[in-house]
Design goal:
Helix content is 45%, strand content 17%. It has 24 helices and 25 strands. α2 links the parallel β2 and β3 (74-77).
Length: 618
């Protein structure tokens, strides 16, 4: 008994010690973060070390990421980077801009086009030098705007163009005994095909091919606008031929094609920066560095309080409230209503970068925007990289819609998915029985499958919502529902084609949208904006601080062939996408076939499910 008490005391002591260590570490990091003095901005090299993705609205860190100790890649807000570059162009302290893309994970094509234009604008007054071990499509879209493009001699330009493989779950679901009951409207609503087929339908392939071709053409035009000497077309047509002509040297093939200017190790790149921006032998890299975070605080500054309200609808549209990076219907609607309540706004700009999601949440946001119109405020929508399905739904109240040629929009269609497990139940030898008092009692029955009455009701609901979708689009675009139906049916369009079809009014980004809002509100030269953003809570600020370590003290080079990616991570990503569909509302206005501007968050349970499936299958 005495021995057991000693063991118990030891375990309690260990537990208390671990808790004390954790608390000391937490509060130590908290103190360090809160007491850290901002880095002063001096003369030198503005270091744009992009260690993550460019997004419209950065997501918040989860507790697990915070406890991981700085393993989280960053999200960079597009408008902040644009403000940094605009300021750097005329700032005499900035001698040169270094665009380090070794940790860059991409972004939507329209967003990167805006950023590329801003980089090209800077190079008119000072040098912009890009460096990476290797470049993919997204990275090269940015690098092509630089004055000089450097690459590691062991790297390559892996320009491949749009194209990807989707997982189709029909065979897996059959093996697991899961039945996917699908309710849809629209010939081209390919979102549900992975649950009903093992390959693409001819209609889905036609739509995806047309969209991919249009996006590739926009990418090509952007690259050649930035870098006319690049022999991008023959390189894309026959990359292996270009490599063979260079004696099997992938980096030299990119150099011969005019895609890069210099093949060199990072140390030589850093010496070039020191030559242009000033030496600092005590600093890592040996050059005077202007840190991005410190410079952004100056460039972005305190948010203005102008008469033009700007609200962002970014990410999946979900019911209720949600943190930044996800478009919570209630969250966004309340931001708009709060902005309208003080009666100081004269116009509203809605920035949309979303593939849609919940019908109810999309309508909640639309009604809040309509309230602005009822108060006689002009409304202008600025579409980002994706504004499709529910993203288009929330755009319909606009007096004017801007998009980029590479914006992905349309997908005017509705679908619903309801899984049932009668096959799984039978495989496990389980029975299921019960009683009904009405035809819809106990429905939907996930153990035996929904009854014919329930299925009819669900399909009727999908048909009804599709009819409403056609109606609000027709009213917005001054067409008949029949005319909209011909270009709807769930089909996805690039921005250029969408303009020809009348789904958008003009090409442009946020600057054009703000100018149009000022024009419609008769504000003269006034362009001041008020961003209707939700302020982060204290908890969110702490988690962000603990989870993010910005790579501003130099970069570690990565494998030049990293563009091939991690196969297991891609599978886990597919599981995450599957989860978001099946866990979402029964009826959705969502474009699953739209290229992701930011990948769904892969959670531990997704990796765990992947491992479980592997054990089951293999």
């Amino acid at each position: 008994m005495r021995f057991a008490r000693a063991i118990w005391k030891l375990l309690v002591g260990v537990k208390d010690a671990l808790v004390l260590i954790f608390m000391l570490m937490f509060f130590g990091l908290l103190y360090a973060g809160l007491s850290a003095k901002p880095t002063p901005v001096g003369d030198g090299v503005l270091a744009l070390d992009l260690n993550g993705a460019v997004v419209e609205q950065p997501s918040r860190a989860e507790l697990s990421e915070a406890l991981a100790g700085g393993s989280r890649a960053q999200d960079y807000r597009l408008r902040d980077l644009l403000a940094v570059l605009k300021n750097a162009k005329t700032d005499s302290r900035v001698k040169v801009v270094a665009l380090d893309l070794d940790g860059f994970t991409g972004g939507g094509q329209a967003a990167l086009s805006d950023l590329s234009d801003a980089i090209r604008d800077v190079r008119q007054s000072k040098k912009v030098i890009a460096y990476a071990t290797g470049y993919t499509d997204d990275g090269y879209q940015l690098a092509s705007a630089a004055s000089e493009i450097w690459m590691n001699p062991l790297g390559l330009v892996a320009a491949a163009g749009p194209g990807s493989q989707r997982l189709y779950y029909k065979g897996l679901l059959d093996k697991l005994g899961v039945t996917a009951h699908v309710y849809r409207v629209g010939t081209y609503k390919a979102a549900v095909e992975p649950f009903t087929r093992n390959d693409m339908s001819p209609e889905a392939r036609e739509n995806a091919q047309a969209l991919g071709n249009a996006l590739l053409e926009n990418w090509r035009e952007g690259v050649l606008k930035n870098r006319p000497q690049a022999k991008i077309d023959p390189y894309l047509r026959d990359t292996n031929g270009a490599v063979a002509a260079a004696g099997g040297d992938l980096a030299k093939a990119a150099l011969n094609a005019g895609l890069v200017d210099k093949l060199a190790e990072r140390q030589e790149f850093e010496r070039r920066l020191a030559e242009l921006g000033g030496k600092d032998d005590k600093a890592l890299g040996g050059y005077q560095r202007i840190k991005l975070t410190a410079y952004a605080k100056e460039a972005v500054g305190a948010q203005s309080r102008g008469p033009i309200g700007v609200v962002t609808v970014a990410g999946m549209i979900v019911d209720g409230k949600a943190a930044a990076g996800t478009a919570g219907g209630e969250t966004i609607a309340q931001l708009i209503e709060k902005g309208l309540a003080n009666n100081k706004l004269k116009a509203l700009v809605v920035r949309v970068d979303s593939p849609g999601g919940s019908v109810l949440a999309s309508e909640r946001i639309r009604q809040a925007i309509l309230e602005a119109k009822r108060r006689k405020l002009p409304v202008v929508v600025s579409m980002g990289s994706v504004a499709a399905s529910g993203g288009y739904w929330v755009s319909t109240p606009a007096d004017f819609i801007y998009a980029e040629p590479s914006t992905i929009t349309g997908s005017i269609g509705v679908f619903g998915i309801l899984p049932s497990f009668e096959g799984t139940r039978a495989k496990l030898g389980l029975g299921s029985d019960g009683i009904k008092t009405t035809p819809l009692s106990g429905e939907p029955d996930v153990f035996n499958g929904p009854s014919p009455e329930a299925e009819k009701l669900l399909q009727t609901g999908v048909d009804s919502i599709y009819g409403r979708f056609l109606g609000i689009v027709a009213q917005s675009r001054h067409k008949t529902p029949q005319e909209i139906d011909k270009i709807a049916q769930g089909r996805v369009w690039d921005g250029g084609t969408a303009r020809q079809l009348g789904l958008v009014d003009g090409f442009g980004g946020m600057d054009e949208a703000v100018a149009k809002a000022a024009e419609l509100a008769k504000l003269g030269d006034e362009r001041g904006v008020t961003y209707l953003d939700r302020a982060p809570t204290f908890k969110e600020q702490i988690l962000d601080m603990l989870a993010t370590t910005e790579r501003e003290d130099g970069s570690s080079e990565r494998d030049g062939y990293a563009f091939f990616g991690n196969g297991q991570l891609k599978l886990a990503q597919a599981i995450a996408d599957l989860r978001t569909v099946l866990a979402g509302p029964s009826i959705q206005v969502r474009c699953l076939e739209c290229p992701a501007t930011a990948p769904a968050r892969v959670e531990r349970r997704d990796v765990g499910l992947l491992a479980s499936l592997g054990e089951w299958l293999f």
